[in-house]
Amino acid sequence: MNQRQDGGRQGGPKGGGRHRHRKPKGRALDGWLIVDKPSGIGSTDVVNKVKRAFDAQKAGHGGTLDPLATGLLPVAFGAATKTVPYVMDGTKTYNFTLKFGEARDTDDADGQVVATSEVRPTDAEIEAVLPAFRGEIMQVPPAYSAIKIGGERAYDLAREGQLVEIAARPARIDRFDLIARPDADTAIFHVQSGKGVYMRSLARDVARAVGSVGHIIALRRLRVGPFREEHAIPLDRLIGNGDMPSPSPDLLLPVTTALADIPALAVTGEEAARLHQGQAISLVELMGRVPREADPEGGLLRAMAGERLLGLCRLESGWMQPERLIQLDSGQGAGGED
């Protein structure tokens, strides 16, 4: 690949300039790719595969899926990586299958059996415990999770045979329904939740609540924030067998798609310049333009100059403060710097 010097002006003679910036490898792509992840592969491996397939400079994912899980894995390219936290804060929906009778150390089918039970609950017994898992609850994450304990990942400690104790943390479950009962050993649930809820913990705790033990044998993510199954492309269609040409950038959704649920505010050229300088703007100046659905105390707004996204701003104490500026050049500019 032709390694041009940035801008073609500042490089000087060959070999000169210790601090010359090298052009990043790959194409400068901005946008979201929604991958339908198959079972048996980790989220980071998926990102690496599609990054290679697209020959992209920069990519990351919007919310980890366990290797066993299938479904939506949003992959952010370039400037879209700046919007990852807002995607991860969005609503997520899942279907999972709980198998009663065996507890596993990973709380899913990939782990080792650590306890057994002969108890198989009725549908009515399952329905009776579900209300306790709806709304704001406290949840203990699985021992095999990426949570850090004393600077170490919990799953690394668990693999070394150490006893992992993770404190309960708040979780929000908006919906939790029993949707099918294939047989006495299994039950299928639909869940709608907020950020950071572990489906493996939910399955484990429901099994305990009905006097049994259990683990997840199937898990599928159906939605992440504004992204839904109709947006998803199977991984094998993107990477093929290695002989396929690079996928088209036309498969990427715009960066702004991730922010569709955040109210938009049109700003003037002068206001845009002030935001880029880090200046807050009084809501008095914006009177009549702030969307009604925006929360004046702590809410987010999408600052737009016509059709162009400038970034995200936070409303606080009568001011609109720039929080995350996002540079895009006509949709595919080199906006992927941190």
Automatic annotation (TrEMBL):
Catalytic residues as annotated in Swiss-Prot or TrEMBL: D66 (nucleophile)
Residue span of region Disordered: 1-28
A Pfam family this chain is assigned to: TruB_C_2
Highest taxon, organism lineage: Bacteria
Stored SUPFAM superfamilies: Pseudouridine synthase
InterPro entries: PsdUridine_synth_cat_dom_sf, PsdUridine_synth_N, tRNA_psdUridine_synth_TruB, TruB_C
Biased composition (Basic residues): 16-26
Domain Pseudouridine synthase II N-terminal, first and last residues per copy: 51-199
Keywords attached to this entry: Isomerase, tRNA processing
Domain spans labelled tRNA pseudouridylate synthase B C-terminal: 200-258
UniProt-listed Enzyme Commission number(s): 5.4.99.25
Catalyzed reaction equations: uridine(55) in tRNA = pseudouridine(55) in tRNA
Similarity-based family: Belongs to the pseudouridine synthase TruB family. Type 1 subfamily.
Function per UniProt: Responsible for synthesis of pseudouridine from uracil-55 in the psi GC loop of transfer RNAs.
The name this protein goes by in its record: tRNA pseudouridine synthase B
Naturally occurring in which organism (per UniProt): Falsiroseomonas selenitidurans
Organism phylogeny: Bacteria, Pseudomonadati, Pseudomonadota, Alphaproteobacteria, Acetobacterales
